[in-house]
Amino acid sequence: MSFIDIHDLSVTYKGKNRTSPALAGISLSIERGETCIVTGPSGCGKSTLLKVLADILQDYRGEVLIDGTAPDAHRHNTALIQQSYGLLPWKTVKQNIALGASIKDIGWDNALYERTMSALAIADIGHKYPGELSGGQRQRAAIARAVMQKPCMLLMDEPFSALDAMTSANSRKLIYHMLKDRQTNDMTTVMVTHNIDEAVYMGNRIVVLAGSPGRLFRTFSNSFAGCDDDSPERRELISHITATIKHSADEETLQTAL
Ligand SMILES: Nc1ncnc2c1ncn2[C@@H]1O[C@H](COP(=O)(O)OP(=O)(O)O)[C@@H](O)[C@H]1O
Ligand SMILES: [Mg+2]
Q: Helical H runs in 45-164?
């Protein structure tokens, strides 16, 4: 049995007057300690998939097992970095981060706090309130809060998308090395991104969803995780994945046009 076992998962959002199918027939297994990247065109259900794993969305069909049981954020010690960050506006960054850790019963690790804040280039914003931060700083504060929770399952929804290229590269390095660290290498990660270079840096496996509702389109295994050099093989994989996503979007457009 894998750490995450998803079998024939379908999700349909039900509104007052209409229903919108978001995912259809997804089957996917993710091993303990694996970093699985989920990518694909906007609207193909990537965030929806993370919400099911995070136990935020319980109304789904099919079977989802995490470590043998249905998603349970507390039991599975889940940390989710959402696209909207979810920081409390009346608490400072440091208080937000400390609260995240205390809710999970994690003792305060000041060395880890300082290391994380400086790797994310936000060492000087601990005393500030979320309202005083730029979008990118808010996003990094949310990443720091998730890291400090020492989660077993880390779910990240486009965590680096609002960051400039340099900070984004530093942040992904920090998270990658944290995941490979001896103490955390059994942490299972699912990360959504549109950035294929980032996907190939972070993921053991890259899953492409496509369509509306989203289906599993292709899966790639990746041996370039953590690899910085720009080899022709790595570039080839990146263009192959990029072409696959484009192809999936073209196919969808064709199907709706016919
Ligand atoms: N709360 C919601 N209510 C109704 N429809 C939703 C809701 N959230 C997402 N959707 C729809 O479900 C589909 C998948 O959305 P989402 O998972 O956010 O896609 P992605 O993250 O890949 O862009 C989209 O068509 C979106 O409009
Ligand atoms: Mg999304």
A: 46-53, 93-103, 110-119, 135-148
Ligand nearest to the Cα of 44, by number: 1
Ligand with minimal distance to 56 CA:
1
- Tens-place pLDDT, residues 169-227: 888 888 898 888 766 668 899 999 999 999 999 999 999 999 999 999 999 999 999 99
CATH 3.10.290.10 fits 4-77+188-257, yes or no: no
Domain ranges of the chain: 4-77+188-257
Q: At what angle do helices 165-180 and 110-119 cross, to 10 degrees?
A: 140
The whole-model pTM stands at 0.92
| Residue of 20, 155, 193, 248 to mutate, ligand 1, most atoms within 8 A of C-beta | 20
